[in-house]
Each structure stands twice: as structure tokens, then as C-alpha cells.
């Protein structure tokens, strides 16, 4: 992929979109960790904590980029990403009530960095796959998306809640990225290169499977939640 070519910009857009789709929980953690601080200190905690989390995220993604060059790990990464895409649709979201609010600037910063590192595996795998093992794409994508997560996270979460179809678009993008990773596994690539129609069918099957499975789980969870609410009332 040539630097700053149309394919590069499309891949960069893909990286940023995936990171934003998967960053809702991270944004909530940032807010919870800094909620007890004075407003004048909150901004510093969020800035420093996010900066530290960004550095860890870049290093972790670079490591994953390197690992994906090991035989069969591209396949493993693709399978993990399929699971992540399914969970994106299936999960109803947690309240993260177990996140302790920091009582000092550095306590909040430490909480943000540790929580983001613990929760960031899905982002790292997804970004590494979407970047097509291109380091510049990884760094640019994270530099663009992380500030949006910090300052525009609430708006983005409200946008997703108002337009639920955005989640399905995200799952489709993740499904495409995952299936593309699998077909680009060096041991499998000759087969898919020789049978391009099967490659297209495989990608479509993965995307449709993720959307259908996620939709069914989401619908079942919503129905069960509705029944519980009716039983309480």
C-alpha cells in the first residue's frame, strides 16, 4: 500500500472508525476514573491518563503487528476478531460500577491507564488487522481517534444510542477485516488467490454469520430484559 494513496486513506478511515466503535467502554472508564476530582484537575487526569494509554496502545499494536507475521497467527487474529465483532452486537453493555474513582491526580491517571490496557485488547487486534500491517496507519489512526474518544466520547455514545444501526455497520466492518485477515494468511492465501469467488463467498458468509448471530443474541437479551422488567412492575 503506497503512502497517502486512495487505498491508504480508505484504510485510515477504517482504522479510525473501528477504534471509535470499540472505544465506548474506554470512554466510560475515563469518565468514571476522574469523576471525584476537582474540575481543574479532571482535565489533567484525562489528558495524562489518555496519553499514557495511547502510548501503551501504540506499543501493544506494534507488537501485534509483528506477531501477525508469524505463521497461522493471522488466522488466529481473524478468528478473535470475528468473536469481537459478535460480542459488539451481542453485549448489552456494562455499567462498570467496579471502576474506582481516583482521589488524586496520579491515582486517576493510573486507573485510566491500567483499565484501558486491560480493556484494549479488542481495539489492538482490530486496529492491527484493519491497518493491514502498516505501522504508519496504526499510529495515525490512534492519534486521530484517541482525542475524539476523550473529547467527543459522550457525543459518539449518544449517537450510537440514537442510531443503533451504527453498531451493525461497525460489526460489518469488523467482519470484513477479520475475514480479510484470514484470507491473507500466508498458508491459505494461495487457495483463495486461485479461487477468488470462494474468497468473496467466505467474506460474505463471515459478515452475514456475525450479523445474524449478534442480532439473535441481542434480540433474545432485549426480550429477557423486558420480561424481567414486567415481572418487577
Describe the 3D structure.
The structure is a single chain. The model has no long low-confidence stretch (mean pLDDT 79). 81% of the residues lie in helices and 0% in strands. Helix 4 runs antiparallel to helix 8. With 233 residues, it is mainly alpha-helical.
Summary of the model, kept short:
This protein has 10 helices and no strands. It is mainly α.
Which radius of gyration do the C-alpha atoms yield? 19 Å
Q: What string gives the helices and strands in order?
A: HHHHHHHHHH
What is the first-to-last residue Cα distance? 58 Å
- Helical residue percent? over 70%
**For the residues shown, what is the average pLDDT?**
79
Largest sheet: none
What fraction of the residues are assigned to beta strands by DSSP? under 5%
> What structural class results from the helix and strand content?
mainly alpha
The general outline is globular
What is the tally of helical segments? 10
Query: Which residue ranges are poorly predicted, with pLDDT under 50 across at least 5 consecutive positions?
Result: none
| Number of beta strands | 0
